[in-house]
């Protein structure tokens, strides 16, 4: 039996999210073992260029291009994916655990009456069994989960979980026409677009995050400067967002975004569980805190016990120098 994996491709402002390319690359690695195919499923409006780009990441690219799919709505997107999955009957469905993914995939899994593992960070095949790696309790427990049975189980993965690998040859593009059904109970009143940051917080390789220890919004300037040098993003704890020093878009944690950059630097952040559950799978964690007993140090690969206002200017200069030298 073919073990084809279907990856729902998320796009933002006409470009493919990096995290979707990660999933396509991982799906390819898995399907190569079972001589199966990777399908990229892209839904939206004006999808030609996106389809061309996706060709180099999938065996088949299924495009559903319709003006009614220009902006994400769970009812229309769910309807389209449900149609595709029922028509093609994939072995597994992958999606990204972004805000859209968190909204869409549980609804889709419920509709398909199948199982879902959300917010995973890894996947392996062991014989016939699929094993999915998922953190619990703010990363204190890392579990392996398996599906007992089910048709086309759905798995959402955190961004930055896998490496991206482009293929040499392009796959085939298939355009599907699907009837778009809008739920009559839903009306879009207004779309509030997120910030215009160059780098998406969830896809950033480098995040420097400020907490209450930053003492005020004006001190975030140095974090912006460091993020700029590193082509990364500034994040914030909820205490900071609640104090209106930063926008909600920057919030990392349980009620904010889950991030997994290559490097996370926490500045003046205590490391409350609600925060760490949003960043504990970062590859390298650095914490700057003047309190040696701050819980963040339990998660840190490198800890600096000092006043952040003494450390940050020196850090900025060092990073700048290193960048210039390379
Ligand atoms: C339902 C719920 C959901 C939540 N969701 C989130 C969430 O998504 N994200 C989130 O972040 N929080 C969330 N929280 C809040 C969370 O529990 C903490 O209250 C919050 O993370 C604390 O933010 P902080 O670390 O910036 O502040 P604090 O806990 O006040 O820590 C400030 C730290 O700065 C250090 N410091 C002070 N001055 C300096 C200095 N000059 N140099 C170095 N260090 C210094 C202090 O030693 C201290 O450790 C949530 C809470 C609840 C109840």
Protein described:
By secondary structure, the chain is an alpha/beta fold. The protein has two domains: 5-175, HUPs (Rossmann fold, 3-Layer(aba) Sandwich), CATH 3.40.50; 201-325, Rossmann fold (3-Layer(aba) Sandwich). 27% of the residues lie in helices and 25% in strands. The protein is built from eight helices and 17 strands. It has helices at residues 18-33, 48-54, 74-88, 99-112, 220-229, 238-242, 273-276, 308-325, and strands at residues 5-9, 11-12, 15-16, 38-44, 60-65, 92-96, 116-120, 122-126, 129-136, 141-146, 154-157, 172-175, 206-210, 233-236, 263-267, 284-289, 302-305. The strands form four sheets. It has a seven-stranded parallel sheet with strand order 7-11-6-1-4-5-12, with helices on both faces. α5 links the parallel β13 and β14 (233-236). The radius of gyration is 21 Å and the shape is globular. The termini are far apart. The mean pLDDT is 93.
Spell out the blueprint of helices and strands.
Blueprint (H helix, E strand, L loop, with lengths): L4 E5 L1 E2 L2 E2 L1 H16 L4 E7 L3 H7 L5 E6 L8 H15 L3 E5 L2 H14 L3 E5 L1 E5 L2 E8 L4 E6 L7 E4 L14 E4 L30 E5 L9 H10 L3 E4 L1 H5 L20 E5 L5 H4 L7 E6 L12 E4 L2 H18 L1
Parallel strand pairs: 1-4, 1-6, 4-5, 5-12, 6-11, 7-11, 13-14, 13-15, 15-16, 16-17
Antiparallel strand pairs: 2-3, 8-9, 9-10
The structure holds flavin-adenine dinucleotide.
The site of flavin-adenine dinucleotide has 28 residues, from helix 6, helix 7, strand 16 and helix 8.
